Amino acid sequence: MILAFLGTAGSGKTTLAGSFGKYLEKEGSSVAYVNLDTGVRRLPYRPDLDVRDIVTVEEIMEEGYGPNGAIVESYDRLLSHVPGIASRIISLTNERDYTLIDTPGQMESFLFHEFGVRLMESLSEPLVAYLFSPEILRRPHDYCFVRFFALMIDLRLGATTVPVLNKIDTLKDEELNMHRRYLEDVEYLTARLKFDPSMSGLMAYKMCSFFPEIAPPVRVVYASAVDGRGFEELETLTYEHYCTCGDLT
């Protein structure tokens, strides 16, 4: 089973991948780790496949590139290696119960670069966990944004995407309950947006009004790499994704 962690810089992808992998191993599952970040320096897990063995941002910067240019160039150079990387991931998937893919810290270098699209298209039914942090959820239309962005990831990569609110250990119970209601009850969110007079509020209201018609049956996961909350749910979702009798509702 393949689970890829995707999210903006600072959303906790690498930490969660490492902690979730340890949880799975304690549960008796065999786990393979894949690092696709050419710029990361330290990892909380030992990767079975590491793209830094092919190219690193540091090496490219020594050629005179700036940090951002080096990141883009690193994935340009990885394009020709996609078949080999995909083949290795497939082999790991056949050998282990779970293959956890840790994507680049700069999400756009994977999501908007041909490298990420080609790689995901080469894999068999990968599940994507889209991580976002509580600090970006300040206004009602922020919740609309994260739910639709998960759909856009699904559309771009062609892979079922599960929204994951990470770092819930930083929230009080009442804050978490509020986030749950906005993220899970689309009718409630739509009703709140109806009274938002801003253009953003109007746009979000119209989008959320037809969200149930286009959204696949996926539930939101609430997770923490610190205390392990949400790990059992994420494990269940991954299993259901690959089980012909299950769905993600």
Gist of the model:
This protein has 249 residues and is of the alpha/beta class.
Could you list some keywords that capture this structure?
single chain, 249 residues, alpha/beta, Rossmann fold, 7-stranded parallel β-sheet, 12 helices, 12% strand, globular
Number of domains: 1
CATH architecture: 3-Layer(aba) Sandwich
The residue fraction in helices comes out at: 40-55%
User: Low-confidence parts, pLDDT < 50 over ≥5 residues?
Assistant: none
Number of strands: 7
How much beta, percentage-wise?
Answer: 5-15%
- Biggest sheet layout: 7 strands, parallel
Q: Helix count, per DSSP?
A: 12
The backbone outline, from C-alpha atoms, is globular
Spatial strand order of the main sheet: 3-2-4-1-5-6-7
CATH superfamily: P-loop containing nucleotide triphosphate hydrolases
Average pLDDT over all residues: 91
Order of helices and strands: EHEEHHHEHHEHEHHHHEH
Radius of gyration: 18 Å
Kindly report the CATH topology: Rossmann fold
Distance between the termini: 19 Å
Highest CATH level, the class: Alpha Beta
Structural class: alpha/beta
